[in-house]
Amino acid sequence: MFSVGSAAACRPVFTACLPWLRAGGQRLLPLAAFHGSARCPGPKVAVVLSGCGVFDGSEIHEASAILVHLSREGAEVKMYAPDVPQMHVIDHTKGQPTENEKRNVLVESARIARGKITDLSELRSKDYDAVIFPGGFGVAKNLCTFAVDGKDCKVNKDVERILNQFHKEGKPIGLCCISPVLVAKVLKGTEVTVGHEHEEDGKWPYCGTAEAIKALGAKHCVKEVTEAHVDVKNKVVTTPAFMCETALHLIFDGLGVMVQNVLKLTKK
After folding, report:
1. Strand, helix or coil at 91?
2. Which helix (H) or strand (E) covers residue 263, if one does?
């Protein structure tokens, strides 16, 4: 055994990494290993990201939890994101937009995917058994314009195409947090949940989203954070996640229920 601070012990590891770090004077890194790298016996699931960071991209805890649950259930996973500019960049220490900074949704999403990310334009429903959309403000800013336009929002053309394809083929769609607004807009008449419809002393700070869901033409169903609503007819599964101010493990559990129901609907 060697101590973490031992330079001598660390030297062999660092030396082995040098070909990756520097090649021809350039910094190069291999794509990091990911659980989706190996072939899995379970359903094939596409996960659609919207950046990296709750205020301008995918909610990282939600995305990670979904990936953990999918891994545990033996699903084969591949991640996608649109190759488009972010609406803006938020300084997460201040919760405010930065000035004169631009980022790309695909590039930022690659942080969560450990480099293994594909342009959303290449996603085809025929290649998968299900699709899941983690939440985060990136959904409302980068996958659609809900954050600005509310019920009059426009949805990214590839997101709209994908939702329609999976729905037409009877393949399940999983969504959490704010992402149910996507199916509420695209697939009229669907049943979804974003949690409760009243703030309840700050426990449900985004409860107003429920009314927006109704305005978009969907039916809102009240659910607890540890629950998921299953629209059996449309094969849409939703859970509140961070729409609720509560303990992280409860959000994790609710996401697990959503994932399990999505996989159950694949009948694989």
Report:
1. strand
2. helix 248-266
CB contact at 8 A, 246 and 220? no
Q: What's the DSSP call for residue 139?
A: I
For the chain, how big is the Rg over CA atoms in Å?
A: 20
Helix, strand, coil percentages in the chain from 3-state DSSP, rounded to 5: 40, 15, 45
- Output the pTM of the full model: 0.88
CB 244 within 8 A of CB 226: no
Give the Cα separation of 155 and 162 in Å (integer).
11
Contact 137, 147 (CB under 8 A): yes
CB atoms inside a 10 Å sphere around CB 200: 13
Give the H/E segment covering residue 176: strand 173-176
Give the separation between CA 228 and CA 143, rounded to whole angstroms: 22
Asked whether the beta carbons of 45 and 130 are under 8 A apart, the reply is yes
Nearest to 112 by CA among 58, 70, 45: 58
**Per-residue pLDDT tens for 143-196?**
999 999 999 999 999 999 999 999 999 999 999 999 999 999 999 999 999 999
Query: How far, in whole angstroms, is CA 123 from its chain's centroid?
Result: 15
Instruction: Give me 20's structure tokens.
Output: 């990756």
Tokens representing residue 57 in the block: 């991209």
The pairing of beta strand 236-239 with beta strand 229-231: antiparallel
Tracing tokens 């033996």 back to the chain, one arrives at 74
C-alpha of 98 from chain center = 23
CB 142 within 8 A of CB 179: no
* Active-site residue list: 177
pLDDT digit string, tens, across residues 9-41: 444 444 444 444 444 545 555 555 555 545 677
